[in-house]
Design brief:
Elements (H helix, E strand, L loop, with lengths): L12 E2 L6 E2 L16 E2 L15 E10 L3 E8 L5 E5 L6 H8 L2
Antiparallel strand pairs: 1-2, 3-4, 4-5, 5-6
């Protein structure tokens, strides 16, 4: 039996990096802070909250994508895992652009 690879989990949270109160997106799973773009290593598959690491995922780069807007690459501060995720509509555009020129 095939397992579902995406679970919608669109809850708000307080960013552990900058303290910003992050609101739910309303159209897909919220997974990172729109201000500092940091995330938390919670998932094995998107939305499942099955990771035991729980480290801070720091944005290391972003690249423009014609269909997805920007795709952000993260590196976990604890286990060093690399993950990629699309940006959200309310992300700090100036910060996304700065990440593309690194």
């Amino acid at each position: 039996m095939e397992t579902k690879r995406f679970e919608k989990n669109d809850s708000g949270f307080i960013c552990e990096n900058c303290g910003f109160e992050v609101q739910p997106l309303g159209y897909t799973s919220r997974d990172h802070c729109p201000k500092c773009l940091c995330s938390k290593h919670l998932d094995i598959n998107p939305g499942d909250r099955a990771s035991t690491c729980k480290g801070l995922m720091v944005p290391v780069s972003a690249e423009p994508d014609a269909k997805k807007g920007f795709v952000i690459t993260y590196k976990c501060s604890i286990c060093r895992a690399i993950k990629r995720n699309k940006s959200a509509s309310d992300d700090d555009m100036d910060y996304l652009i700065r990440l593309t020129v690194r």
